[in-house]
Structure formats: C-alpha cells, structure tokens
C-alpha cells in the first residue's frame, strides 16, 4: 500500500472542538509538505497499533482556531485523553482539501461524509 507520509509527535491539547463535535482527535504539531486537507491512514497510539484513522492536516478555521496541526480521529476507540503519548500516523490516501465552512452544522455534515468515505476506503483495503 502506498504511503504519502509517516508523521509523528507527542499528543497535545488544543481547543477540544473535535470532541465537542463528536469526533475526538489526538493532535500533534507537525511540519509537513503535504497539502492541507483530510486523509485516510493508520495510526499507532498506545494501546492501538495500525489503527484506521481519519487524519486532518491544516488550520481548523471553521471553529475559529489558528495554527496548522495534524488531528487524527481513530475510528471506534474509547474517547479519552491521550495527552503526552506518542502518535504516529501513516498517511495513505488524500480524500479532500481543507475548507472553511459557513457553519458548524455544515462542518459536521462534511465530517460525517468523510467518515463514511473513510470506512468504505478501509474496507476496500482489507
């Protein structure tokens, strides 16, 4: 399977907006030349290894945040804090570019569509 990049770092707290929207994320600061957007790949975050993840790289402007980051939503895991743990992601597929939505409701619709597309993509990889 083709990999676009392998990125990693220590999970840091940001604003917690992903959790508020129903999509908790493990966030790291990272430098990458990948374009901003939503990706699919696999994550290692103890105790999860090679776990399917929806990965956002960019600045989440819709929720008013600033600062580029990587946010990984590991599918179907317990929602808890993973701060100070090491996250490694293997990015395999570019899904869509980052965009600023006009409302939080539009953002949630897009995230749900990303999840549906991601689950289909992971199933096709099995």
Walk me through the structure.
With 126 residues, the chain is an alpha+beta fold. The chain has a single domain (5-125), classed as Elongation Factor Tu (Ef-tu), domain 3 (Beta Barrel), CATH 2.40.30. The protein is built from 2 helices and 6 strands. It has helices at 17-20, 104-125, and strands at residues 5-10, 26-28, 37-45, 48-58, 69-74, 86-97. The protein has a 6-stranded antiparallel β-sheet with strand order 1-6-3-4-5-2. Strand 3 and strand 4 (48-58) form a beta hairpin. The longest helix has 22 residues, at 104-125. It is globular and about 35 Å long. The mean pLDDT is 91.
Side-by-side strand order of the widest sheet: 1-6-3-4-5-2
Q: What's the CATH architecture?
A: Beta Barrel
**Briefly, what CATH class?**
Mainly Beta
Morphology call: globular
Question: And the CATH topology?
Answer: Elongation Factor Tu (Ef-tu), domain 3
**Structural class by sheet pairing and helices:** alpha+beta
How many independent structural domains? 1
Distance between the termini: 11 Å
Low-pLDDT stretches: none
Question: Mean pLDDT score, rounded?
Answer: 91
Main beta sheet, described? 6 strands, antiparallel
Assigned CATH superfamily: Riboflavin kinase-like
Q: How many β-strands, per DSSP?
A: 6
Any idea what the radius of gyration is? 13 Å
| Strand percent estimate | 35-45%
Question: Residue share in helices?
Answer: 10-25%
Count of helix runs: 2
Pattern of helices and strands: EHEEEEEH
């Amino acid at each position: 399977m083709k990999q676009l990049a392998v990125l990693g770092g220590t999970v840091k707290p940001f604003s917690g907006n992903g959790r508020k929207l129903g999509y908790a994320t493990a966030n790291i600061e990272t430098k990458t030349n990948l374009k901003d957007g939503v990706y699919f790949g696999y994550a290692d975050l103890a105790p999860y290894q090679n776990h399917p993840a929806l990965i956002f790289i960019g600045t989440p402007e819709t929720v008013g945040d600033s600062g580029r980051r990587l946010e990984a939503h590991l599918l179907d895991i317990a929602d808890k804090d993973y701060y100070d743990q090491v996250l490694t992601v293997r990015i395999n597929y570019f899904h869509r570019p980052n965009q600023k939505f006009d409302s939080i409701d539009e953002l949630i619709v897009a995230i749900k569509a990303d999840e549906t597309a991601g689950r289909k993509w992971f199933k096709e990889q099995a």
